[in-house]
Amino acid sequence: MFPVLAESTTTTALPNLDQPLVWAGFLVGAYLLGSFPTAHLLARSRGVDLGSVGSKNYGATNLGRTLGRTWGILCFVLDAIKGAAPVLLSGWLIGALGASPGSLAPMTAWLWLATAAAAIIGHTLSPWIGFKGGKGVATGFGALAAMWPVLTLPAILALVLWCALVLVFRMVSLASMVAAVSVPCSVLVAAISANGLTGVQDAVPFLAASGGIALFVVWKHRANITRIRAGTESKVLQKKPNSPTSSTATNAAEVKS
């Protein structure tokens, strides 16, 4: 889970992380990229105002329910990319990409994680649509998966768990919350398995950040939690029942025959 990679023989000029402007540049850039209103623009391309239909949420799930599964999958992929892109770029620029947790300076690790958080916040609070947005699941997955190798496998395992839960329970919200919580759990297990308490100490920034992101995802789904407890949460991958009109027509036809 936490492989130790060989150090590169080439040297590159890394940005001075003691400079506030460096942090500001990374975080503002990640926020703006994350704020790109993917679902809103895809819906608009089909003449739909996503903020006035379904759950009124600007995310892949609501888009998929409104326009169809293909559109939802496309939106998920694009939202994941806008989370992964700033993380990959920042990781490369600060020398974090490909490094093990124990080899990263604390400031380097925290800036990398802050960049991921900024992209997720941008997605959920986009200035282009009145500081509204999605719930951060797809963008969060992309951001965490891009933290090679520290969080890549936990993120992939979370995606597999998400798919399994959607197939079993048919609730995207439930699957999203459980998958988000699974990431810090996977990081903790991997850290202990690798180096015991030393591994946990090395992974503290990644544990704290993934745990914070998980809590944020759960908080964004607080209305869904209420509906789940009430048994009224929307489900996916189910056939829609026949309308009363069509059922009446069918019954009438059967009587005539």
Structural commentary:
By secondary structure, this protein is mainly alpha-helical. It contains 11 helices and no strands. It has helices at residues 20-34, 38-45, 60-67, 69-93, 106-124, 137-145, 152-169, 172-202, 204-220, 222-230, 244-256. The protein starts with 19 loop residues before the first helix and ends with a helix. Mean pLDDT is 88; it is low at 4-11 and 243-257.
SSE topology:
Blueprint: H1 20-34, H2 38-45, H3 60-67, H4 69-93, H5 106-124, H6 137-145, H7 152-169, H8 172-202, H9 204-220, H10 222-230, H11 244-256
Distinctive features:
257 residues, globular, disordered C terminus, mainly alpha, single chain
Q: Which of globular, elongated, flat, extended, rod-shaped describes the shape?
A: globular
Alpha-carbon Rg, integer: 21 Å
Percent of sequence in beta strands = under 5%
Q: What is the number of E strands?
A: 0
Please estimate the helix content.
55-70%
Q: Count of helical segments?
A: 11
- Low-pLDDT runs of 5+ residues are 4-11, 243-257
Q: Given the helix and strand composition, which structural class is it?
A: mainly alpha
Ends apart, CA distance between termini: 66 Å
On the 0-100 scale, what is the average pLDDT? 88
Oligomer: single chain
Give a short account of the largest sheet: none
Total of domains: 1
- Secondary-structure element order, N to C: HHHHHHHHHHH
